Protein backbone atom coordinates (compact mmCIF):
# COMPACT_ATOMS: atom_id res chain seq x y z
CA UNK A 1 0.00 0.00 0.00
CA UNK A 2 1.27 3.45 -0.88
CA UNK A 3 0.18 6.72 0.72
CA UNK A 4 0.95 9.81 -1.36
CA UNK A 5 0.81 13.40 -0.08
CA UNK A 6 -0.96 15.98 -2.23
CA UNK A 7 -0.71 19.77 -2.49
CA UNK A 8 -3.88 20.06 -0.38
CA UNK A 9 -3.06 20.18 3.33
CA UNK A 10 -4.12 16.94 5.04
CA UNK A 11 -5.26 15.29 1.79
CA UNK A 12 -3.54 12.04 0.82
CA UNK A 13 -4.01 9.51 -1.96
CA UNK A 14 -4.11 5.89 -0.81
CA UNK A 15 -3.04 3.38 -3.46
CA UNK A 16 -3.68 -0.24 -2.42
CA UNK A 17 -1.54 -3.02 -3.85
CA UNK A 18 -3.55 -5.66 -5.74
CA UNK A 19 -2.39 -9.29 -5.84
CA UNK A 20 -4.10 -11.33 -8.52
CA UNK A 21 -4.02 -14.14 -11.02
CA UNK A 22 -6.54 -16.01 -13.20
CA UNK A 23 -8.51 -17.06 -10.06
CA UNK A 24 -9.21 -13.50 -8.87
CA UNK A 25 -7.51 -10.95 -6.63
CA UNK A 26 -6.84 -9.84 -3.06
CA UNK A 27 -6.14 -6.31 -1.87
CA UNK A 28 -5.63 -4.68 1.51
CA UNK A 29 -7.46 -1.35 1.39
CA UNK A 30 -6.66 -0.23 4.95
CA UNK A 31 -3.86 -1.07 7.36
CA UNK A 32 -3.62 0.78 10.67
CA UNK A 33 0.18 0.47 10.93
CA UNK A 34 0.74 1.79 7.39
CA UNK A 35 -1.70 4.66 7.88
CA UNK A 36 -0.25 5.62 11.25
CA UNK A 37 3.24 5.81 9.73
CA UNK A 38 1.75 8.18 7.09
CA UNK A 39 0.27 10.42 9.79
CA UNK A 40 -3.30 9.09 9.58
CA UNK A 41 -4.58 8.06 13.02
CA UNK A 42 -8.01 6.47 12.96
CA UNK A 43 -9.28 3.72 15.27
CA UNK A 44 -9.76 1.17 12.46
CA UNK A 45 -7.38 -1.78 12.22
CA UNK A 46 -7.51 -3.42 8.78
CA UNK A 47 -9.76 -3.92 5.74
CA UNK A 48 -9.27 -6.48 2.96
CA UNK A 49 -11.14 -7.26 -0.26
CA UNK A 50 -11.03 -10.42 -2.33
CA UNK A 51 -12.75 -11.51 -5.52
CA UNK A 52 -12.82 -14.98 -7.06
CA UNK A 53 -13.45 -15.37 -10.78
CA UNK A 54 -14.78 -18.94 -10.63
CA UNK A 55 -17.24 -20.69 -8.35
CA UNK A 56 -15.49 -23.23 -6.10
CA UNK A 57 -12.10 -21.51 -6.03
CA UNK A 58 -11.84 -22.13 -2.27
CA UNK A 59 -13.62 -25.49 -2.13
CA UNK A 60 -11.64 -28.54 -1.02
CA UNK A 61 -11.96 -31.42 -3.46
Number of domains: 1
| Largest sheet report | 3 strands, antiparallel
| Percent range of helical residues | under 10%
Looking at the structure, what is the overall shape? elongated
Structure explained in plain terms:
- There is one protein chain.
- By secondary structure, the protein is mainly β.
- The protein has one domain.
- It is built from one helix and five strands, in the order ββββαβ.
- The chain has one helix at 32-37, and strands at residues 2-5, 12-15, 18-21, 24-31, 46-52.
- The mean pLDDT is 84.
Keywords:
elongated, 44% strand, 10% helix, mainly beta, three-stranded antiparallel sheet
Describe the structure concisely.
This protein is mainly beta and 61 residues long. 10% of the residues lie in helices and 44% in strands. The longest helix has 6 residues, at 32-37.
Give the topology.
Blueprint (H helix, E strand, L loop, with lengths): L1 E4 L6 E4 L2 E4 L2 E8 H6 L8 E7 L9
Amino acid sequence: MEVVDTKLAGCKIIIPQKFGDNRGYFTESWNQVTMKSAGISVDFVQDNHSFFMHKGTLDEK
